[in-house]
Amino acid sequence: MDFSIGEVSRRSRVKIPTIRYYEQIGLLEVPKRTEGKQRRYESADLGRLNFIRHARELGFEIGPIRELLEMGRTPDQPCAAADEIARRHLGDVERRISQLIALRGELQRMVEECGHGRVGECRVIQVLGDHSHCETDHAAAAHARAPG
């Protein structure tokens, strides 16, 4: 059975431009095409897209997803490498949670200290303008994860 890109998009809940992007970067094999040049996908492509979408929902980056997909080609091998990828990702998630907790505390403190007066005396504006007013060093963490 084969599917159009629209049908694969609907079934996988992956947007058409994203499907094309996954083809461009090699996460998804370039599909066969009809005489009219329309892409035609197979059930295996749909399964792969569902895998990728679920992995992305769990926060996995493209590189680890590529590794995990490659591992799936040899199902009889030990899964230690897949476990290690998941452990690394879990560590990243735990670090982000810690950073977010610190950021939440800083924002709560900033809002609680606001006197609700004029902007010139606004604690939110003061703290955002001068990092030395912060109690945590969240700036380094933000720079470490900023794209760039």
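Second entry:
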Amino acid sequence: MKKIVLILALLFSSLFAEIEWMGYDAALQKAGKENKIVMVMLSKEGCPACEYMMDIVFEDDNVIEEFNRDFIGVHLDIHEDYIPDEFTYIGTPTFHFVNKHGRKIGRIDGGVNVRDFTATMREVKASR
């Protein structure tokens, strides 16, 4: 019976899995404890490419699964939130990947499709 409940719980949680967003300092702490990579997404309201990333790429089951296994997400609005100096941008979205020590290990400028985002995640993981 316990196995059935566990399997149902895992199935149910995977059906509603999503990327959890948190603040940068909390993400760095969690990355240190869990040996994960922090991805900082810089965006702004009304940005079509940002909306594409949130509505299409970050809703893809494979992206969610791989992201949650190895990454921690930080989502900052360039007009509303404090942006640390090391996170430069020309436009939005811009993605910065940092290791658990806060050292930059990757970057994406602009929106990308699921395939390209997944490939970048794998490249960044390999470079940590």
